[in-house]
Amino acid sequence: xxxQYPEKSxxxxxxxxxxxxxxxxxxxxIKGRIxxxxxxxxxxxxxxxxxxxHSFSDQEEKILEIGKRAYYKALAYYYYPSLPDPEFIFDYSxxxxxxxxxxxxxxxxxxxxxxxxxxxxxLEDYFFSLSLHEISHYIFCPYDTLTNFRLLAAAIxxxxxxxxxxxxxxxxADLIIDQKNHADFPDLMNWExxxxxxxxxxxxxxxxxxxxTKVLIECYEILWGIQIIPNSQRDEIRSxxxxxxxxxxxxxxxNENLWEKKVKAIGKQLVEILKKEVQLNNNFQQENxxxxxxxxxxxxxxxxxxGDLTELKNPDLIxxxxxxxNAPVEDKEEKNIQNLMxxxxxxxxxxxxxDLLSLHGYTDSTQNLALWYRGQAKGLIQIExxxxxxxxxxxxxxxxxxxxxxxxxFDPIQSLLVSPVIIPNMTTRKxxxxxxxxxxxxxxxxxxxxxxxxxxxxxxxxxxxxxxGRYHISLLAAFSAMQYSLQRGSYISAINFxxxxxxxxxxxxxxxxxxxxxxxxxxxxxxxxxxxEEFAQKAENPSLILVISDLEIENWxxxxxxxxxxxxxxxxxxxFFIDGDQSILLTKNFQELMERGAKFxxxxxxxxxxxxxxxxxxxxxx
Length: 622
Description:
Layout: E1 23-24, E2 35-41, E3 47-53, E4 55-56, H1 58-77, E5 87-89, E6 98-100, E7 107-110, H2 120-139, H3 145-157, H4 165-184, H5 186-197, H6 211-224, H7 236-250, H8 259-277, E8 279-280, H9 286-290, E9 296-297, H10 300-306, H11 329-344, H12 350-359, H13 365-377, E10 381-400, H14 412-418, E11 429-441, E12 448-453, E13 461-462, E14 467-468, H15 470-486, E15 492-497, E16 501-507, H16 510-517, H17 529-538, E17 544-549, H18 556-568, E18 572-578, H19 588-595, E19 599-603, E20 612-619
Helix pairs in contact: 1-2, 2-4, 3-4, 3-8, 3-11, 3-12, 4-5, 4-6, 4-8, 6-7, 7-8, 11-13, 12-13, 13-15
InterPro entries: vWFA_dom_sf
Protein name: VWA domain-containing protein
Organism: Candidatus Lokiarchaeum ossiferum
């Protein structure tokens, strides 16, 4: 029985006599569904949902009024969070329920997708309960996209297929928010779940309920102390999985820092059930990945009761109610995802991050690797430029103070140290001052040329858990210097050398530089002296040339000659010696270059890059 609220009427909404449609919404009345959702595609191939509105009957108008009242009551309960306006539809196929529209990031409520409820107060209670659930996704879990990404990553790290991970996260989020709402509305939540599931276990029902649905219902039974599934339809293995999931949920329930561990553990409980219950869509194409669609199909009873568990949420976009005049929603979403992935990169292996990106339609392996390195390298290296200038006056030594000198320059203490009797022009003293040289930090740093060694000795190793090797450390150094420079208005050029030369002239386009840096070759080591000199001559001002190599260079004699020439032209040269022996820097060749201003850093591991500051002083004649 529905919870009783005295202030609500018990008006029966059933009208046996059919009436003509009362008003038209957008087009002429069409017999059948009130609203249809059709998939259209723009010229760029991106999916767009077009909505065809039909008309409301008198009864539907009344249900619409109740639905709106229930939704805004739920919104008021959460103190009116800033959410996009909801959309109320009638789809009598009941394939669409209450869900978050991933095109608008607003809530869509199908007011036709209700069980056998006829009384006004029961309809309002039902819509209120479901509205609480959908709004709670924004309020409690995942409440922002970064949290959602972390939970997806946790599921993947737990051994769940990347396409199962949204299902695990959505199940976890549903249990969390429903348990929170149940604490405030226990009778209402129990009644709504009983109403929603009452037809599943009807003796007259011919269809068999899926194991996934039974597992989820059993979880609610355990959490809320109710019984829905008949004892005859219970299974020990399935029941144990439900008990384990509930134990995971309830342990330290309020500690959000444990969410990732809980999702990982719940994924292990659900993985075998998902493998059996979720079917592969044979019509799935590569284009579907770009549209963020799952290649798996959920059982119909799961869709009808728990909604589309495969959906990917991006709650951060709800903050942008109106589209940016300078960018479409798709571009804002892409930028948002890329920024969040950069923030997450230090926490994730590349394989996990690649799986997350592929879920959102990012399938370009080079682009994904560049995004991972951006996050890994962020803030490792700082580059500071100072210019010399005249500083303040500095006291050098005391000298005789004579009559006629400024009285302010007379130093009585120094005079008394010479003689207790002060005699002008003889024992009187003052200080001799001179101007010192100071330094001023420049806000804009020099343009940077990155010269990266991708020879065979610069190994680059990939495995399931991590990426390692000399080239990996080189990329971290290159990406960190590049990002730091571009953020301060500098231009970058890049030369990737082995037996071949891959180069990008001066630019401020991040992606062009990244593709050069990520083009690993793995052959010989010949420093491209001609290309370096060509880029150096085309630079508008003396630049910083950053050479990253293990210094096992075959053409050392012409390379040394070039370095001397570049230093004489005013360019600065800094070289990272990857896995280098510090003693080699004591040899005559390196000592000569360092005396001329070249700098060498021996880098053995990533820790050597953390907090590294590259400082250069620019002399300005005044």
